[in-house]
Design brief:
homodimer, 155 residues, mainly alpha, 6 helices, disordered C terminus, DNA-binding
DNA sequence: CCACATAGTTCGATGATACAACTATATGGT
DNA sequence: ACCATATAGTTGTATCATCGAACTATGTGG
């Protein structure tokens, strides 16, 4: 039993999941991780401004701008101007976008299922518990990345 | 309590660790994930040909070629020709490379430590167990990525 | 010795990202 | 009202990791 480091483990998992190959995340779908992630975020937390989406995705606003432009072009996301503050772009999934997202989730679930079948129930539980905890820890120690996503001022 | 999907979890973790921002993995070190990973692989499994390294990293041979060229340029990796088959480049860490790798590992361990402090012992154990199992499962179902890395012929 | 296989390199393209400079809109003080 | 400043988003430019294809060099088997 190799005492593999946690980083090593995580890196292995990243790679095997094809994280360094944008096109490969979901074979056949020309979707990047960011796009998938964005759809998921919008599906859950209803209307988000681009800045808000950026702080979820940890992406620079310019990257978000282009990202959502693409999603809009595909007809998956709508960008409505906020009535109260027309600088804001309120992002929502279109119906088609919601459908795509559902399909994506399903697709990924299937992939999970395959993977999970190979884990014992105990391992599955451990994986979820561990990742959830890790994410929590990461969020807290969120050691101010370069483009430190500004806290959406709750103002 | 959101029933966060596993993919979602994993993606969150990716992003918070800065996996989409090459430079950001280890602030101050201009190292990509692949480079870090390559150093680690060489540290463990002694001399590897580029093809072998490629199948570890899941990278195309051309990508490996450039990657190791960079590492060599920095003086971290040596590329010796195999005496028996001079087509092969036997990759090894230089002393400096080994030192760098050790430093990297230490650096990352520290980061772990910070993160782990925020997890309960139980969560830590769960994380390691879960990731280990997941990696195993990924390796097994490693079914057919596009550029399917050829099995390094055990010759 | 020639045909073919294998290891690696180089070239060109793609795509995700950042940063900086810009536009448009909002807000607050005088 | 008006200007200064702040904020949201866009556009332009650069970087860089990656792939695929075409190439070179080396090994191998008739």
């Amino acid at each position: 039993m190799e005492k593999t480091s946690f980083d090593q483990l995580l890196m292995d998992v990243f790679r095997e999941m094809g994280a360094h190959r944008p096109e490969q995340i979901l074979p056949g779908w020309s979707l990047t991780l960011s796009e998938i992630y964005a759809l998921g975020a919008l599906a859950e937390r209803a209307p988000l401004s681009q800045a808000e989406l950026g702080s979820v995705l940890l992406l620079e606003k310019s990257s978000v701008s282009r990202l959502v432009a693409q999603l809009e072009q595909r007809g998956w996301v709508t960008r409505e101007r906020d009535a109260r503050d027309s600088r804001l772009r309120l992002l929502r999934l279109s119906e088609q976008g919601a459908a795509i997202n559902a399909q994506l989730q399903r697709h990924m679930s299937e992939r999970h299922a395959e993977l999970f079948e190979q884990l014992t129930a105990r391992e599955q539980a451990a994986l979820l518990e561990g990742l959830t905890a890790l994410r929590r820890a990461l969020r807290q120690s969120q050691s101010r990345p370069a483009h430190t996503p500004a806290e959406p001022s709750a103002d």
